[in-house]
Write a structure and sequence with these properties.
24% strand; 5-stranded mixed β-sheet; alpha/beta; elongated; 156 residues
């Protein structure tokens, strides 16, 4: 399976980016193309791109800033068989500070509940049962070294 991962700069002109999405999908011979980040802005961009796509063999997962049935940011769409389908999924990116702010501002929210659960959890390092612990340090074969200078690139 051939997979392409395409990521755009956040400073790129969105119209140019939309044209690149069309060109990349139409010219690709990959089985799957992943477009993380805001590859498209909204349903207008998605419709425009869909009208101009000719490659019906490729599957592409595209993140769209504001689109979809859920009307939440960062929704995922799958392009297959010549059309986009809503995957009914999105993700929320947050910093620890944002979660703490949400805990303070919205004490009954799911983020507040998550913060409380994480804050009260007693995290400990996992332990390895004695039966699975190595008895001796592993030895490298004599023709190999761990020196970065000796590493070689192997081609299939």
């Amino acid at each position: 399976m051939k997979i392409q991962l395409i990521s755009f700069s956040g400073e790129m002109n969105p119209n140019y980016q939309m044209e690149l999405v069309i060109r990349i999908i139409n010219e690709s011979n990959a089985d799957l193309i992943l477009f993380p980040g805001h590859a498209l802005r909204d349903c207008d961009d998605r419709r425009y791109v869909e009208e101009h796509l000719t490659n019906k063999k490729v599957i592409a997962i595209v993140e769209i800033a504001n689109d979809g049935i859920m009307k939440t940011p960062n929704e995922l769409f799958i392009y297959r068989d010549g059309e986009f389908e809503d995957m009914y999924t999105s993700h929320v990116l947050a910093t620890a500070e944002a979660i703490l702010d949400a805990r303070t501002m919205y004490p009954n929210s799911s983020l507040a509940a998550l913060y409380d659960r994480l804050n009260s959890a007693k995290l400990t390092a996992p332990t390895t049962p004695p039966s699975l612990r190595p008895t001796a340090s592993p030895k490298m074969p004599p023709n190999l070294t761990s020196s970065p200078a000796s590493s070689r690139c192997i081609k299939d």
